[in-house]
Amino acid sequence: MIEQRCLRRVNGASWQADTFHRALESGLDREAALAATTRRYRTLMLSGEPVHTWPVGIG
Q1: Which of 9, 14, 37, 55 has the most C-beta neighbours closer than 10 Å?
Q2: What is the value of pTM for the model shown?
């Protein structure tokens, strides 16, 4: 798992930052982008899949 995170250059912090910035680019304001990122994080966290496999963005 650690090897794949390194190879893909993805960890929880990078996923959150990338997803937040994509939400802003989609037209959401800062507060809405943070809320959408948090909701998406929770959904993906509950899936049990490792973070390096999560799609970036708010879905």
Answers
A1: 37
A2: 0.88
Q: How far is CA 37 from the centre of its chain?
A: 7
Any domain includes 29: yes
**C-beta atoms surrounding 11 within 10 Å:** 13
Looking at the structure of the chain, the number of domains it has is 1
pLDDT digits (tens, 9 = 90+) for 4-49: 888 888 999 999 999 999 999 999 999 999 999 999 999 999 999 9
In this structure, is residue 24 part of a structural domain?
Answer: yes
Q: What is the DSSP string of 2-32?
A: HHHHHHHT--HHHHHHHHHHHHHHTT--HHH
